[in-house]
Amino acid sequence: MSTTTAAAVSIVALAALGVLPVLATTGWRWVSVPLAPIAGAIATALGGGAFLLFGGTFLLWTIAIATVAGLVVLGRWWRNPACRPRRPTTPPPTSERVLMGIGLLGSIGAACWSLRALATPTVGFDTRAVWALRDGWLLHDHAQALLDFKVHMFLIGQSGYPPLVSTESTIGWALTGVHTIRLAVVIVAIVNAAAVLCLSCGLLEVGRAVSRRSNRLPALLALGGGAIAATAIVLIAFGIQEPFITNGYADPLWAACAAGAVVFGLQLDDRPAWRAAAGILVVAAGMTKQEGLFTAVGLIVLMTARRLGGRTDRRRQATVVGAAVVELASLAWWWLAIHLTGSRDVTSPLASTRQMPHRAVAVFHGFSPSLHVLVLALGVSLLGGLALRTPRRRAGLGNDLWAWAGLLAGLGVVSLVLVTGQAPVLPWIAGSVHRVTQYPAITGWLLVSVWGLTAIGGLDDAEPLDVVGQDRALR
Amino acid sequence: MSRSSRLVAAIVAVLCLGGLGVQALHGNAVVSQQRSARTVADALLDDAYYDCLDTQAHSLISPHTPVRYRPGVTLGESIVLNKTVGSWIDVAVPGTSPVAFLGIRHTGGPGSCLGDVVVAKFRTPDGRWITRFGHGAAVPGNGPPPAPPL
User: What is the DSSP string of A76-92?
Assistant: First the structure.
C-alpha cells in the first residue's frame, strides 16, 4: 500500500472513530468535519492508556472505546429523537451562506496548499526519537510494550509524555500494515491541518456573530472579513508552525487545538455546540504534550469560570462542572497509566532560586522575536476595549480578557518550565523557542482577528436590526 | 456609535486585517522554504542514513529477537539506535540474557551509512562472543547527517 493510500485510510478511520460523538455534541456544523479526526485521535489516546493498563491490544481498546461512545450516542438519539442533529429550520441568508462558503473553501484551499511542504520528506528529531518510537511499542504485545515504556535502556523520559501524537499514527500503522515513519508524519500533518481548520471555522463563526448584529453593509463586510481572516489564519498558523507542522512534531497539534479552545470556549458566545468544540479541542491539546497538558488544565479552569459566571441555575452549574470533570479525567488517563504501570516519567531537576531571575530575563529576550504579534494584539485590545465594547457585547462575543488569560496561561507554562529547569537556558531556548511560542503566537493572531471583525461591526452608524429582520434584509 | 468610535473601529479594522494579510504572505513564504533544494537534499540524506542503518539492523536480527543495547552505550549512540531500531526490536526481559547486544560503530568506508555501521555481538553455543556487522545498505560519505531543526 502506498503512503498516500495508507494516509487516506488512516484519516478516514480516525474520522470514523470520532464522528458520532462530534455530531452528538456539535451537530451539523462545518467545524464538525475537522473535529471528527481530532475526536478520533482522542479515542486512540484513550485506547493507548487502556492498553498499557489492562493488556489486550491497542487496536482493540481503541475500537472498543469508540464503539461504546458511538453506541451511547445512537442510544440517546433513539430514545430521544429531539437530540438528533438537525439542520436549522430557517436556513441562513444566501449572502451569509455564500460568503461563509467562500471562507471555508479559502481555508481548505490554504491548508491543502500549505501541506505542499509534505513533499519534502523531512522527519523531525523528536519524531524519530520519541513520537514514532512509541508507535511501534504500542503495537507490541502487552508485556513487551510495558518493557519498552519501563526499561532504562532507551534513556528517554519523554516516552511518558501524553500519547496522542503517537497513537493517532499508530492506528494508521495498525490498520494498513505500513509501519513507516513517513506515514506517521503524513497522518500527524493532516490532523494538524484539521486543527488549524478548526481555527478557521471559529473565525467564520465570529464573523457570522458580528454580522447578525449589524445592518446590511457592515454585516456583509463582517462576513467577508471573517472569510479573509479564516483563510489568513491558516497561512499564518502554517508559517508559525513550519517545519514542525509537517515533520511529525507534537507541538503544532497542541498549540492549534489550545488556540481553537480559546476561540470556541472563551471568545464565541456560550452555547452547547461551541462548548463541545472547545471541550474536544482542549482535551486533544492536553493529550498531546506536557506543555499542552498544563495549558489545557488552565483553559478548562478559565472556560468553567466563564460559563459559571452569573449563573444561579444549579442544574446548569452541575452540567458545566460535570463537563470540566470529564475533560480533566480524560487528561489524567494517560498520566495514570504511566504511573500505575511504573513506566518512565518526565522529570526535570530544578534550577537554584538564585539563577531564576537571570533565566527569566533570558526567556523574555529569547521569546520576544517570536511574539511580536502580542504588541499588535495588545494595541488593538486597548483601542477596542476603549471604543468597541458595544459592538463586541452586541455580537455576544466573550470579554477579551478571557482570551488574554488563556494566552498567558500557556505562555506562563512554557516560561516557567524554562525558568525553573536546570538545563543551560540559552541553548534550551535556542532549541525550543520556535516550538514553545507557537501557542501564544497563534492565539495572538486570533485576538487580532476577533478585534478586526468586531471593529467591522463597530462601523455601523445605526442601531442594528433584530436578527430576524436582518436575516430578511440580507436575503 | 459615535463618529469617534467609528473612526477607531475603522483604524482597528484596517490594522487587524492589514496585519493578517502581511503575516499570511510571510507564512506562505516560510512554507515555501520547506521546498528549497537545500532542505529537500538534507531531508533525503537524513532519510537515507536512517533507512540504511535500519536495513543493516534487519540483516543482523529479526523483530522478535530479544536484544539489548551494548553495555556502556553512549547517549548519542543510544539516540541513533532509538531512532533506527527502537520501535521494532524486542527488549530482552531484565534478568535474562539477550540474544545479541546492539551498537553503532563508526568505521567509515564502503558498506557504511555515512561512516556508521550497526554491530551486534552474539554469544555462540560454545560461550564465545562474536561480533557481526550489518550489511545490505550503504550511504557514501562521512559524518552524521545534517542536524534537523529542533
Answer: HHHH-GGGS----SSPP
β-strands B129-133, B90-91 pairing:
unpaired
Which amino acid appears at position B49 of this protein? Y
Would you call A116 and B6 a contact, using CB atoms and an 8 Å cutoff? no
**Cβ-Cβ contacts under 8 Å, B30 against chain A:** 238-239, 242
C-alpha pair distances (Å), A122 with each of A80, A167, A235, A472: 49, 20, 20, 52
Report A:379-398 residues touching B (Cβ under 8 A): 379-380, 383-384, 386-388, 390-391
Minimal Cβ distance to A461: which of B6, B20, B25: B6
Q: Complex ipTM, two decimals?
A: 0.93
Give the pLDDT of chain A (475 residues) as one tens digit per residue.
899 999 999 999 999 999 999 999 999 899 999 999 999 999 999 999 999 999 999 999 999 999 999 999 999 999 998 888 877 777 888 889 999 999 999 999 999 999 999 999 999 999 999 999 999 999 999 999 999 999 888 878 788 899 999 999 999 999 999 999 999 999 999 999 999 999 999 999 999 999 987 777 888 999 999 999 999 999 999 999 989 999 999 999 999 999 999 999 999 998 999 999 999 999 999 999 999 999 999 999 999 999 998 677 888 889 999 999 999 999 999 999 999 998 877 776 777 888 889 999 999 999 999 999 999 999 999 999 988 888 898 889 999 999 999 999 999 999 999 999 888 999 999 989 999 999 999 999 999 999 999 999 877 766 555 544 444 444 3
CB–CB of A242 and B33 under 8 A? yes
Round to whole Å and give the CA distance between A94 and A287.
40
Distance, CA of A30 to CA of A22 (rounded, Å): 11
A435: closest CA of chain B, how far (Å): 8
- Are B113 and B56 spatial neighbours (Cβ–Cβ below 8 Å)? yes
* Nearest Cβ partner for A155 among B40, B78, B94: B78
What's the predicted TM-score (pTM) here?
0.94
To the nearest whole Å, the CA of B112 is away from the closest chain A CA by 21
Searching chain A, which residue's CA lies closest to the CA of residue B33? A117
> What is the C-alpha to C-alpha distance for residues A42 and A62, in angstroms, rounded to an integer?
9
The three state secondary structure string of chain B is: CCHHHHHHHHHHHHHHHHHHHHHHHHHHHHHHHCCCHHHHHHHHHHHHHHHHHHHHHHHHCCCCCEEEECCCCCHHHHHHHHHHHCCCCEECCCCCCCCEEEEEEECCCCCCECCEEEEEEEECCCCCEEEEECCCCCECCCCCCCCCCC
